[in-house]
Write a structure and sequence with these properties.
It contains 10 helices and 3 strands; from the N terminus they run ααβααββαααααα. The chain is mainly α and 168 residues long. A 3-stranded antiparallel sheet has the order 1-3-2. α3 packs across α4. The longest helix is centred in the first third of the chain and has 23 residues. The chain is globular and about 65 Å long. The chain starts with 6 loop residues before the first helix and ends in a 5-residue tail after the last helix.
Length: 168
Amino acid sequence: MTTALARHDLTDMMQAYKKTSLLRTGVELGVFDALAAAPATAGALASTLGIHPRGARILLDALTAIRLVDRTGEHFSLTPVAREHLVRDRPDYLGGMVKVMSSDWEWDALRDLSAAVRTGGTVLDVHAETPEYTYWEDFAAYATKVAHPTAEVMAEALAPWAKEQPEL
């Protein structure tokens, strides 16, 4: 049985790419790493990252709106989930996956999904079946964190079978 959707689910779908773009920008610019050191004002963060102060303020306000950053007065800090998963030196860092899940290749492939559905295949000149497609390099480099839980489940499921196999 399918769970019913509500109007807000549809508006969330319509705006999901905006949240993804904010997350990607925060990771790419090093916002989460910089805020991991200490809370900062938009101006201080802009200076640290070498970005425009107005752009930093707008980005920080938007990251606050999507609950990746907290704001107290003029100071911004990381939320617990951002601290755990979006700071590069943390063991559960997932930020590298933005290079895969919101890569330029993904954006381009999905930008005209209607055309791909109409033609029954990609409308891109360079795609997943192109020899030496560099997307797979990023996938291999960054997908381990999200693949690890699945790998553990598979290892557990295959362990009894593996024990019964002859050694080579």
